Every structure is written in C-alpha cells, then in structure tokens.
Amino acid sequence: MCEVTLNRGNMKNILIRLVVNSAALLVAVNIISGINIPTWGVLIATAIVIGLLNAVLKPVLILLTLPINILTLGIFTLFINAFLFYLTSKIIIEFTVGGFWDAFWGAVLFSIVSIILNVIIGSNEMRNLQDENRR
Fold it and tell me: Model-level pTM greater than 0.85?
C-alpha cells in the first residue's frame, strides 16, 4: 500500500505551479487568436490538465521519441509540447485550439512564459530560503 502525504510545502508548490500554468495559459490565449478559453474555471481546469499531462505523459513520449529528439537536437520536443497542448483541447472541450500551428505556437509561448515565471518565482524562493537561514 502506498501512502501519499502532502505537507504545506508540497501544497504550496502545487499551488505555485497552478498559478504559473494559469498565467502562462492566459498569455497564450490572449496572444494566439486560434486558442480560446471562455471562463476562469475552464482556464484553471486546463492548467491542471496541462500540468498533469506534462508530468505523466511527456516523459514517456520523450523516452519513446529519444532517437528523433537526439537527431533534431531536442527540437522535436516542441512538437511533443504541441501535441500535449492539442490533446488538452480534446480533454477539456471548452478549451479550443484552431489547429496544429495554433497548438504549436501556443505551446511554445506557454513554455516560454512558464520558464520566465518559474525563474522569477524560483529566485524569490531562494531569497526567502537565504533569509530564513540567516535568522
């Protein structure tokens, strides 16, 4: 039997990831015209599904496509991201993606914004840890 325990630190990290994914998704929706999300609830649900797919399915896809990824120097990962973005639109019906290229550019933009936000939040977290260690 496997027991999963969530402490405050884990819950905080999950909430931070949800906020980062939601913000990145909001940026992608507002810039890419072929991507639409009608409500805030759908935005949050979509952010959760994208996070779950990236955590569970993406590593498997990267492993299965490792030879292509090596040959393309990792560029094929962009297409995996686009596929997961498009797959999310099939899981969350209200989240609509116009086609492959909308999914591709949406996934690229989502990734860029996520990376930037994670760097900003990560540097704040590091400062907080350093401040706590000084006390």
Answer: no
Residue 33: how many CA atoms within 13 Å on its side-chain side? 0
Q: How is residue 5 annotated by DSSP?
A: -
Nearest to 105 by CA among 131, 129, 78: 78
* Measured distance CA(79)–CA(73) in Å, rounded: 13
DSSP-assigned beta bridge partners for residue 36: 96
Contacts of 111 (CB under 8 A, 6+ apart): 24, 81
Tell me if 17 sits within 8 A of 25, measured CB to CB: no
pLDDT tens digits, residue range 39-52? 999 999 999 999 99
* pLDDT, mean of residues 49-59: 94
Tokens linked to 52: 């779950």
Provide the 3-class DSSP secondary structure of residue 96. Answer: strand
Q: Are 100 and 40 a contacting pair, CB within 8 Å? A: no
pLDDT digits (tens, 9 = 90+) for 13-44: 888 889 999 999 999 999 999 999 999 999 99
Rounded distance between C-alpha atoms, residue 116 and residue 40, angstroms: 22
